[in-house]
Design goal:
The chain is an alpha+beta fold. The strands form three sheets. The protein has a six-stranded antiparallel beta barrel. The protein has a six-stranded mixed β-sheet with strand order 9-14-13-12-10-11. InterPro entries: TrmO-like_N (IPR023370), YaeB-like (IPR040372), YaeB-like_sf (IPR036413), YaeB_N_sf (IPR036414).
Amino acid sequence: MAPIGSVQSCFSTRNGTPRQPLVVPLARATVVLNPARVAAEALEGLASYSHCWILYVFHLNTDLDKMWKDPARSKLKAKVRVPRLKGGKMGVLATRTPHRPNPIGLSVAKVEAVDGHAILLSGVDLVDGTPVLDIKPYLPYSDSVEGATIPNWLEVDGALAVESIHFSEHFISSLSNCWAHVQKQALYASADEFQDLIKEVLSWDIRSLSQRLRPHQVTIESKADDCGSKADKDCRNKEDYQAADSCSIVVYHLHLEGIDVSYKIDENSNIIVDNAALLPSAANQNRCSYLTWRDKLNTL
């Protein structure tokens, strides 16, 4: 199969991308179809639906090489660790893990607007650059199953919810500086709306199980001067983290809309959002933005 288009998402990396669709209502993305494969007329009528299904490829799946290059030796795991089970395992086909026999994803999203070859969606769980295979309208009379049930382990309230989220004064000022550089290419109308997105994303503990046990791609910082005078260490692997002093804390990073958002989370799941910094790629993005969709949104 060949993709018919790709996703321009507010989520720059897998880390921070919601585990399920619609749990972060402000999560936005534009699906841009390839005009060489799909005419704009193919989207005629889609704007009349409130939601649609997106079929896509988990293109950042770390198992892709072994699955496709030598499937006979891929040894795809039959069971995977489930976040809600705190490391407990479940059959891969009884979960929505991206590490599947075939790396195909299925997500529902809200249709905000349609314009030419592009669709603005919200409530997405799609990472930037995702190849799209197909789009289908959501039909409540057939897609919503009355009386459907789920396993008990999925019914645990607040299993991944955090206790509180606070924004430091430094974050507010640093976000203001960053926003001046990214606002013309962002899918959000203002820095305040973007801050609301951050709060929605971090309302769920976005860390994987391995990240909670062995933080990676994070920063180790000293709590106080007496913890040592070394510069902050970039913690890239298990050994680095184990070598960190007991008086050190972990700073996690969330990449959204070309901005690196730094935050800390304590043992009681309280989050402090500390800083915002421009990512190197922020100035090189050529994509649909809020300004692209503003007039369409105002007419809805």
